[in-house]
Amino acid sequence: MNRRFLSFLLFTLCLSPAAWAQTPPGPTEAPASSPAWLPHGALLGASLRADAREAAAFAAQVRLLWEIPFFRGRSDRLAVSIEPLAAYTFSYPDTVVEGRDVDMRALRLFSLVAGVAYRNRPERGLEWGFQVGTGPAWYAARFTRGEKTRESYFVGLLDGRVQLGYNFGSYSLGLGVGYGDLYNYRRTSLSRPYVGGLHLGLYLEWR
After folding, report:
1. Virtual CA dihedral for 49, 158, 190, 108, nearest 10 degrees?
2. In CATH, what class is 3-12+37-206?
3. How far is the C-alpha of 114 from the C-alpha of 81, rounded, in Å?
4. Mean per-residue pLDDT for 68-78?
5. In the chain, pLDDT over 70 holds for what percent of residues?
6. Could you give the 3-state DSSP secondary structure of residue 162?
7. Which of 115, 125, 159, 167 has the highest count of CB atoms within 10 angstroms of its CB?
8. Alpha-carbon distances of 167 from 51, 75, 103, 124, rounded to whole Å
């Protein structure tokens, strides 16, 4: 697993006790106006992942956001987060096999990430938060001019994100930055080095 992501995960987990240390005088957030079974937000962004040769792939991704709070403070809360995500790569490395001309023609990723989210959200104004989770993932790729023409694997994905935005009362808008990495992957996979990585996007949440 990527060491940079493990450091990021450790950092976010160390921030969690700060939320528990605050005395909750009662929630100030308005009751949710949308049903619990509908998404509470969405994130649209892109991801970048490079292999050991610094050959990179860029992917567009979209995420839907669900949160189920289990702790509320004056302006912060902890919640169970659920995020289905879909990503499709639109820029590929010149070759996925060093010393050979093997092109990648398609790479897509689907996952369902569940975890814990912390949100510091006043009634109005600047807000921030972070989350970390894991879940099953499926990725598939197609190649040309190589012995392997396609591959498809079910694996696990570990994913985390920090976000900063502005709360307008009934909705929030901001920027999210995170990192995702696969585990229990197949070492023979040609596309694995280009799945996940650093991701950046704009989120919109409503209540």
Report:
1. -80
2. mainly beta
3. 6
4. 91
5. 84
6. strand
7. 159
8. 38, 11, 44, 5
Q: Which helix (H) or strand (E) holds 43?
A: strand 41-50
- 39 with 58: CB under 8 angstroms? no
Question: In which residue are the tokens 């790729």 written?
Answer: 141
Q: What average pLDDT score do residues 9-24 get? A: 48
- Under a CB-based contact definition with an 8 Å cutoff, are residues 5 and 161 in contact? no
More confident of the two residues 24 and 95: 95
- Report pLDDT for 131: 97
Point out which residues pair with 63 in neighbouring strands: 43, 85
Residue 87 CA neighbour count, 13 Å, CB half: 33
Q: Are 39 and 65 in contact (CB under 8 A)?
A: yes
Token duo for residue 65: 């956001």
CA angle 54, 46, 202 (to 5 degrees): 140
Q: What is the mean pLDDT of residues 117-138?
A: 95
How far apart CA 98 and CA 110 sit, in angstroms, is 27
Mean of pLDDT values over 191-199? 94
Q: How far apart (Å, rounded) are the C-alpha atoms in residues 150 and 140?
A: 7
Task: Give which of 183, 116, 108 is closest to 138, Cα–Cα.
Answer: 108
Looking at per-residue confidence, does 117 or 98 come out higher? 117
